[in-house]
Amino acid sequence: MRVLGETLTSTYQWLSHLKSSQLKNIAHVTGIPTAGPKLALALRLQRELPQCEYLPPELGASIEPDSSARRSAGQNGVQSEMDRDRGKGNLSILSIDMGIQNLAFAHLLVPGPAMRKNGSSRFTASGSPIPTLTAWHRLAVSAFPRSSTLGLSSLPLSTFPLSQSRPRKQKVRREDESTQPQPSSDEGAAIATGSAEEDDKFSFAPDLYAEHAYTLITSLLATYKPTHILIERQRFRSGGASAVQEWTLRVGVFEGMLYAVLHTLARERGYSIFVQGVEPSRVARYWYGDGENDVIQEKGGSETTKKKRMTSKEGKKAKIDLVGKWLCACEAGDENINDGVTKISSTEGQKIDVAPDDNVRRVVNSYLRKWQGKKTTKSRSAVSSDEGSKSDIGKLDDLADCLLQGVTWLDWHVARAEILRHGADASVVRDIILNTGSAKTA
């Protein structure tokens, strides 16, 4: 302990009095890696806790930002608005769940710490900010149009193809070619163009996906003007097979392209955007721990504790359920919910808010209907009929992942800000010391 106390600065001397397990719990609730012995963990906390993106005004000037994740330079139209938000302490978070057929993203607007003093209703009773969900989409990157054919460097988001399900293989019916009419030259050119576009959907040529990466990033920046971009970290997965599956390699390559585009824009255009990769496993552990020591109900009625790690399928369902509860909690008193959704009050308090935007509310309604197991019914009006035709949003896990990732990252930095302000007297630290905050509960 003497060595640790001599190594830490005066601001973090209180860390030397904590147990190794308590240090790990502090790292756990602040999104910091928990591996390593006590000395290494304490030094890591001292180094990474100040890398906080939700600093109150009184601490902002005394703590250096994380230069490794942020790039800054000159000014332009988009950048000026980003800087104005950052000056107010407001956050515009774009959270991306990686994929080729199913790339999902959520955009969250977060009130700055300064607004809490003004009695803003966008904070919980404990003082945590309530982010507002302003956009929630899943896109099929493989179906993006080639920017070179349109002559555009970026496209309006409304032109992006939405992903609803994986493409099905069509059965080929062989017929006598002599009985088929031969296409004219114009028709043949159109067919050739269509075939080329269809081939692009199933191609993974690096030059094609470099175009897709540039189009996606520039369009998202122009549309949402984020101050922070979170990208799901990829890992090589074999799915139980002897070799790594090819699609995981493709998603990993596309992930690198997104970082390359963002880095280039930062250097060439002077964007100052916080960009960080987020490990899905760390997000899951924040809410559900390691999936061990679950209480198993036996047939006889008694309970026993059995070590059981949560499976991938169980983890997906748990995350989908958690996001569903959040949406129900924020929509319980909202009259904009369609008839197909059951309104449920939540005792967990409001975690997010939903912007009064037709597009995002349509996705929220569709998510809740599918999560609650309700089939889309025929609508009573033309408007509701049109909404019903768009209500099948396909898989829920991608949408849940990107929203959960953004909210969890915000929780980590709110906890860091509290520790930076109060040190050992922070409520999150006191809870850990009292062994009541050792694991986050959903």
From TrEMBL:
InterPro entries: Mrs1/Cce1, RNaseH-like_sf, RNaseH_sf, SAP_dom, Ydc2_cat. Residues 15-49 form the SAP domain. GO terms for cellular component: mitochondrion. Residues 60-86, 161-192 are annotated as: Disordered. Coiled coil: none annotated. GO terms for molecular function: crossed form four-way junction DNA binding; DNA endonuclease activity; flap-structured DNA binding; Y-form DNA binding. This is SAP domain-containing protein.
